[in-house]
Description:
Chain A has about 500 residues and is an alpha/beta fold. Chain A has 18 helices and 22 strands. In chain B, strands 1-4 form a two-stranded antiparallel ribbon. In chain B, strands 2-3 form a two-stranded antiparallel sheet. In chain B, helix 13 (about 270-290) packs antiparallel against helix 14. At the A-B interface, helix 11 and strand 18 of A face helix 9 and helix 10 of B.
Amino acid sequence: xxxxxxxxxxxxxxxxxxxxxxxxxxxxxxxxxxxxxxxxxxxxxxxxxxxxxxxxxxxxxxxxxxxxxxxxxxxxxxxxxxxxxxxxxxxxxxxxxxxxxxxxxxxxxxxxxxxxxxxxxxxxxxxxxxxxxxxxxxxxxxxxxxxxxxxxxxxxxxxxxxxxxxxxxxxxxxxxxxxxxxxxxxxxxxxxxxxxxxxxxxxxxxxxxxxxxxxxxxxxxxxxxxxxxxxxxxxxxxxxxxxxxxxxxxxxxxxxxxxxxxxxxxxxxxxxxxxxxxxxxxxxxxxxxxxxxxxxxxxxxxxxxxxxxxxxxxxxxxxxxxxxxxxxxxxxxxxxxxxxxxxxxxxxxxxxxxxxxxxxxxxxxxxxxxxxxxxxxxxxxxxxxxxxxxxxxxxxxxxxxxxxxxxxxxxxxxxxxxxxxxxxxxxxxxxxxxxxxxxxxxxxxxxxxxxxxxxxxxxxxxxxxxxxxxxxxxxxxxxxxxxxxxxxxxxxxxxxxxxxxxx
Amino acid sequence: xxxxxxxxxxxxxxxxxxxxxxxxxxxxxxxxxxxxxxxxxxxxxxxxxxxxxxxxxxxxxxxxxxxxxxxxxxxxxxxxxxxxxxxxxxxxxxxxxxxxxxxxxxxxxxxxxxxxxxxxxxxxxxxxxxxxxxxxxxxxxxxxxxxxxxxxxxxxxxxxxxxxxxxxxxxxxxxxxxxxxxxxxxxxxxxxxxxxxxxxxxxxxxxxxxxxxxxxxxxxxxxxxxxxxxxxxxxxxxxxxxxxxxxxxxxxxxxxxxxxxxxxxxxxxxxxxxxxxxxxxxxxxxxxxxxxxxxxxxxxxxxxxxxxxxxxxxxxxxx
Lengths: 503, 319
């Protein structure tokens, strides 16, 4: 192995947002050839820290030293120019451009004599870079036609084309299957061996232990520790980050038969190319989990129940009433609540206050003759903030300024305020750290105990095992079976979901 | 005392932006009164307020649309057609004035609602859709009288157009009343909440059980109605229905809203800003006339003010 040297050094970085110290006096060193995982709660400041490194956020004070040089970054393009590239969780590719166009986007290279782009040279250069990563990517097709994992490789190639010295990966495995994940890990390791310093944000602890060389823990804006991976234990990390032991997190409850009335029944639901023959019932007081691999159709089933999508055939029966031509508005009147998988694009109004976001579902109840009852609203919202312990400086703080976990709590609060009977929750803890995750799981269980019928859709099997009474397993749009909690072990469930058939 | 402070606080929220516009208006008033001895005379001030009236009404309607991240380019043509319908009712059919006014308002109601349905239900792009209706409505206006103007004589109209109450011209009082209603609707009602929420994130609003189609349709209805009121007021003041009147209404309305800090991306801004924007534009127009500056300069200066206002907003945001 090559000798490792410090590539990037941060000294006393500070960053304050209204009401919070997001990054508080952080000093850290990143070495070439090392994969350095940064772990922490949502809101621990790791995203902000990495945005500062990449130039997407500007630090309040402190020094960023790249290869011994003090640098000032005021935009992501400054970062890229210095060779600090970020591979975002939501890939920032342009879907209609081809692979090589995306890789060299914004670079004034490959011009021929008259100043036009030499497509052939660009494609060749693109292929040269992509070959370092994978053999089977066609750079000539628009990237929207590629799978997520291939798109990700193009995003990585884009970083390589800028001669990256530091590469930052933000939750790179969130949308990947297991085999794609292991391929990505190979690539990350190879890039490290080429001398690039790799910084890696993730919530998946077991992945960290597969791959990382070093691990840094952050909490509430502070850097708690930086250790070699061989010096730490998984249970310790969970303990330091959340103050809770790991065994508790993975506890699975015992199955008890549920006696509540059937709140929601789905019969033979079909949607072409998405799912088919989906049938199930949900009773008051139980949690039904729906899970499978990414693209198994679980989210789409949930969307159909809330009328975001419309089925080709099949019935949705709410409390004995057959619903037809539903809109989300009518679904809410039927007593349904829907937590979308992507809170930023369809769950929250980020440029509006926490208060307005929470009360949005309940405007009718919080008003008289169409006029808002501000006192009633204030009380209701404050009660919700207390009940879910949402961390806000005031109810008028903008939703966009909050961390992912707190944002998700706001989306939940919206529906708790309305007092609905059927909850449809899609990926309720995506991108949220273990601490808040446990809180949300507890809230889901409480909802069921208080008599609500809850559907939880998640591609995280552990989560589904944790919260559900029964689990509906899907494989490529087809229902496999409904499993009671405690009936099957984690590995058995994984086998079913991956389509491995046991005799 | 604290009550007054409270009022000032509400007026000047949004990071002192409205305060900035207000101070600029005060500065212009001082400047104009130094340069022209006639500027601060009561007659001229009332004239200034009268000039502000139509632009304020247009601005109020436009503010609703802009907050939902839309635009309405058809308001000028709606105002012209509304005025023309009013004139035809009185002059050609001899109907009483109040019926003519109702007919006039119906024009805005209908065209606005059609705009709204096309944009919300059929998902047309607002700018293109209202550009289309603008052309259609202008065509209808020209067809109705073969492009001629219509003289309108009606006692009620004269009283509205040239009358005053406590010295204040009636058109200005109508404008202020509509502003007050708009303010209350936007800040205190569930409808207002829905309007802001749609501008901030339409999908999230829809998924929260709000009928976004109805809300968005109503927003364009409001804008159309406001345009009709402008049309009616112009007929009353001019004593005639002109087919080519107020072609600039759409751009003026967008301008006063933009100066007032209403984001064209939707979801943000207070209608108090629109009021100040209208006062600012009114002051500039009136001041330039009082100072005997050729009216061609008006366009030039108003354009500069719009760009400066939006530019300052961006610079502030960067900081």
